[in-house]
From TrEMBL:
It comes from Polypedilum vanderplanki. Residues 1-15 form the signal peptide. One of its GO terms (cellular component) is hemoglobin complex. Belongs to the globin family. InterPro entries: Erythrocruorin (IPR002336), Globin (IPR000971), Globin-like_sf (IPR009050), Globin/Proto (IPR012292), Mb-like_M (IPR044399). It comes from the Eukaryota. Keywords: Heme, Iron, Metal-binding, Oxygen transport, Signal, Transport. This is Globin domain-containing protein. Residues 17-160 form the Globin domain. One of its GO terms (molecular function) is metal ion binding.
């Protein structure tokens, strides 16, 4: 019995890598939005102004006034490119270490900026809402998408 409980706990903690089919679903959804960098960051800031407040370049400013700036486009592109890179590496066990390296760097940069797990979860909610309303979405896509986030967030949260 104790053995089974230990197994269940290990199972809950370990990442479940995406299958090739799941990775294809995530890529398909992401491909529909990945060139809408500015709209994505604007949707995140609109839903969660506390995230905007952490960016020195945008804190305390009206979103409408910064959304069209080059600085905004640059930040939006950095964030979206990071996600594109992680997604392009998913669904392949050989590239799992590369995902771990990227997620570890992101955690360390953001830890230094005082970004919290709660804010990362807010970002996830806003991004998932954006993608699910701008790509074809169903239970299979949602489940693959959530698995991908669970895996990467497990790495980030262990280091944040
Ligand atoms: C959830 C709350 C988050 C906050 C408050 C936050 C905040 C910040 C800040 C303040 C910067 C520095 C901007 C500057 O140079 O002035 C930054 C950079 C960056 N963020 Fe975030 N971030 C968050 C989540 C994320 C997530 C989830 C990703 C990726 C999926 C991400 C990707 C990046 C990247 C790639 C950079 C540029 C490289 C770097 O300096 O680390 N951020 N972020």
């Amino acid at each position: 019995m104790k053995f089974l409980i230990v197994l269940a706990l290990i199972g809950a903690a370990a990442a479940t890598p995406l299958s090739a089919d799941q990775a294809a679903l995530v890529k398909g959804a992401w491909d529909k939005v990945k060139t809408s960098e500015v709209e994505i960051l604007a949707a995140v800031f609109t839903a969660y102004p506390d995230i905007q407040a952490k960016f020195p370049a945008f804190a305390g400013k009206d979103l409408a006034s910064v959304k069209g700036s080059a600085a905004f486009a640059l930040h939006a592109t950095r964030i979206v490119s990071f996600i594109s890179e992680v997604i392009s590496l998913s669904g392949n066990s050989a590239t799992a270490p590369a995902i771990e390296t990227l997620a570890t760097e992101l955690a360390s940069n953001h830890k230094n900026r005082g970004v919290t797990q709660a804010q990362f979860n807010e970002f996830r909610t806003a991004l998932t809402n954006y993608v699910s309303s701008n790509a074809s979405w169903g239970d299979n896509v949602a489940s693959a998408w959530n698995q991908a986030f669970d895996n990467v967030y497990a790495i980030i949260f262990a280091r944040l």
